[in-house]
């Protein structure tokens, strides 16, 4: 979703000027931690690209109140 080298047909979901070149899961997790979020890395495979493994999940809502963080 974030790889600037991928085309829209390959699965990039954001504009190239906002994308990063070949980001790794660890790099994405580090950025999220720096921004104050608590990322969770999961082992997942995608049918479109079986070699790409992993997913980063982020809870954007506060558990007790349900408000966005």
TrEMBL record:
Name of a matching Pfam family: SRP19
Protein localization: Cytoplasm
Gene Ontology cellular-component terms listed: signal recognition particle, endoplasmic reticulum targeting
Coiled coil regions in record: none
Gene Ontology biological process: SRP-dependent cotranslational protein targeting to membrane, signal sequence recognition
GO MF: 7S RNA binding
InterPro entries: Signal_recog_particle_SRP19, SRP19-like_sf
Keywords: Cytoplasm, Ribonucleoprotein, Signal recognition particle
PANTHER family: SIGNAL RECOGNITION PARTICLE 19 KD PROTEIN, SIGNAL RECOGNITION PARTICLE 19 KDA PROTEIN
Protein known as: PUB domain-containing protein
Taxonomic lineage: Eukaryota, Haptista, Haptophyta, Prymnesiophyceae, Isochrysidales
């Amino acid at each position: 979703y974030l790889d600037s080298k991928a085309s829209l047909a390959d699965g990039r979901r954001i504009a190239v000027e906002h994308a990063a070149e070949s980001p790794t899961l660890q790099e994405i997790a580090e950025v999220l931690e720096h921004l104050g979020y608590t990322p969770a890395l999961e082992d997942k495979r995608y049918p479109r690209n079986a070699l790409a493994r992993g997913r980063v999940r982020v809870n954007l809502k506060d558990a007790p109140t349900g408000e966005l963080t």
